[in-house]
Design a protein that fits this description.
By secondary structure, the protein is α+β, with helices and mostly antiparallel strands. 26% of the residues lie in helices and 29% in strands.
Length: 376
């Protein structure tokens, strides 16, 4: 388990070690590939939100009073109060959850695979062999993933997650990954070497807080160059009492009359363009050395970056609100007026004396909420 310098073919077809710049280009390509299909996503979803509410606070007028003999005093008139409106709209989708939802669309007949698995899981069939073909393979993953919601926290879901953690990363003959030179001997990199050399550095950059491929951020407008808007509606709106709407002549005013100050939207940073890199060398099944094709090595990189960022404990990309990590985009600012109330009166006639307190003061920041990216 170490950072390796993979071998490449030079212009004279000699095997030489890659430079740090060439390795960095592969790291950049891993980030690009992640951006084409992020392992962890966020969406705006009022039904499945799980990241917590962002509160907007604002002042509202007190209830109005009417008296037949005189005006109620300021002390007798109900005070202004604070309205709190929660925006609980952000849903973090983990890698297994994403796969579950994506694969659901591909399953035509769910009932039979699950009935078979439940009835025969303690019989002759291997657990997870949903299609009963004698082996556990990707074709069985569709049914296993769908069962996650009902088995969360059980031994079965732990089995599924362990299965997925290793899916497409096995190196059964120890020659799947690029070769490097060690004391004059040519060896194949291990899975851990691949993570240390390419994947962990890529994940570190993906989570540095800058606009990295496939990561999510907040912005104060509904368009942003190099990004995809995730939903036309904002995820948070800062509102304040609109003092211009409250007048003495209108006493009996509606208490809550807000104006929109700022709206905040969720974006995903686009993947950008593929990175040109030097293809490393691997050991073929006949023990000869051969250079990867770009498409073949991209498949390896994409599988590893998706699993590393989605299921490798300590390197799983995650997001939170005001927790640990690096800020992603604009802070969502909740502002509020800082006044203690504007007492007003209205004489209607000798039997109708009205009073009401209106919001007033200067705008101040009540709180700022950041979307943050981290590794867990």
């Amino acid at each position: 388990m170490a950072v390796r310098a993979p071998l490449k073919l030079d212009a004279s077809n000699n095997f030489v070690e890659m430079s740090s710049t060439e390795i960095a280009a592969i790291v950049d390509q891993a980030k690009y590939l992640y951006g084409t299909a992020p392992s962890v996503t966020i969406k705006r979803d009022s039904g499945g939100a799980n990241m917590g509410a962002i509160n907007d606070t604002r002042l509202q007028a007190g209830a109005s009073t009417t008296d037949v003999t005189n005006f109620d005093t300021a002390e007798e008139t109900p005070n202004i109060s604070t309205v709190t409106q929660g925006y609980d709209l952000l849903e973090l989708e983990t890698f297994p959850h994403q796969m579950t939802n994506a694969i659901l669309a591909k399953i035509v007949n769910i009932s039979h695979p699950f009935r078979s698995w439940i009835e025969e899981s303690v019989g002759g069939r291997a657990r997870g062999d949903i299609n009963n073909d004698g082996s556990v393979s990707i074709s069985d993953t569709t049914a296993m993933l769908r069962y996650e919601q009902g088995l969360s926290g059980t031994a079965e879901i732990n089995y599924i997650e362990s299965y997925l953690l290793n899916l497409n990363t096995e190196d059964t003959n120890n020659i799947k990954y690029p070769v490097y030179q060690d004391g004059g001997h040519i060896k194949a990199m291990s899975l851990d070497d691949m993570y240390d050399t390419f994947i962990y550095p890529a994940i570190d950059e993906l989570t540095d807080g800058s606009d990295q491929p496939g990561t999510f951020r907040i912005h104060t407008a509904n368009s942003l160059s190099g990004h995809t808007l995730m939903h036309a509606a904002p995820v948070f709106i800062d509102k304040r009492a609109d003092v211009s709407e409250y007048t003495a002549a209108g006493i009996g005013e509606a208490q809550d009359q807000p104006e929109t100050i700022s709206s905040y939207y969720l974006f995903r940073t686009n993947a950008g363009n593929a990175v040109s890199y030097v293809n490393p060398v691997y050991i073929r099944s006949d023990n000869h050395l051969q250079q990867y094709t770009t498409s073949n090595f991209d498949v390896l990189l994409k599988q590893l970056i998706q699993h590393g960022a989605g299921m490798k404990t300590g390197s799983i990309i995650s997001y939170n609100l005001n927790g640990t990590g690096n800020n992603r985009g604009s802070g969502m600012v909740d502002t509020i007026l800082n006044g203690s109330g504007n007492y007003q009166t209205l004489f209607v006639n000798a039997n109708d004396y009205r009073t009401q307190e209106f919001p007033n003061g200067s705008a101040v920041t009540a709180s700022t909420t950041f979307l943050r990216i981290t590794q867990v």
